[in-house]
Specification:
It is built from four helices and five strands; from the N terminus they run βααβββαβα. The chain is an alpha+beta fold. The structure holds coenzyme A. The site of coenzyme A has 22 residues, from β4, α3 and α4. It holds the Pfam family Acetyltransf_1.
Length: 142
């Protein structure tokens, strides 16, 4: 394996969407769209980090920084590549980025029933925070 980590470009969007359909956790969220990923890359060109092995997309994470807080989204590794430290590399790259930007704490949204992800997040140093729940409101389309 000769894996590199790099920021996503607009040309990667179709491959990213295909990858997420195959590899990402997919519950309880709006459907992905090319427009949404393009908006992310346009607003913050270093937020979406890709793991690429010999030209093949094998992992992703979004390291989101809004100037106030740090959030990780879309941590996913291709099923055939799991258990080789790719998620760890992606999360460490995301944390490096967020630290450089001034972040002091990172959070990740993890479904309560995503039992595969829980041991990975724990191994990476993350803990559930019992005091909080996520409150959401979909914005009406205007
Ligand atoms: C969760 C996921 C990203 C882990 O990717 P991965 O590349 O296999 O993880 P890594 O090999 O980098 O492992 C990182 C650490 O987590 C641990 N870990 C990962 N998966 C584990 C599992 N299923 N059970 C126990 N420990 C696990 C590893 O032992 C490792 O710890 P270590 O470095 O101390 O040895 C991958 O299983 C995945 O894509 N799942 C589907 C998408 C998903 O649910 N993403 C999370 C959304 S919140």
């Amino acid at each position: 394996m000769h894996m590199i980590l790099r920021s996503a470009h607009a040309a990667d969007i179709p491959a990213v969407l295909d990858f997420w359909r195959a590899a990402a956790e997919d519950g309880h969220r709006p459907a992905d769209s090319a427009q949404a990923v393009a908006a992310l890359i346009a607003r913050d060109p270093e937020a979406l980090i890709l793991a690429v092995d010999e030209g093949v997309l094998v992992g992703t994470v979004i390291a989101g920084w809004d100037g106030w807080r740090c959030h990780l989204y879309r941590l996913a590794v291709a099923p055939a590549y799991r258990g080789q430290g790719i998620a760890r590399s992606l999360v460490e790259a995301a944390e490096d980025r967020l630290r450089r930007l001034g972040g002091i704490r990172v959070d990740a949204m993890v479904l309560d029933d995503n039992s595969t992800a829980h041991p990975a997040w724990r191994a990476l140093g993350y803990q559930p925070q019992a005091q909080w729940s996520r409150w959401v409101k979909p914005l009406p389309v205007q």
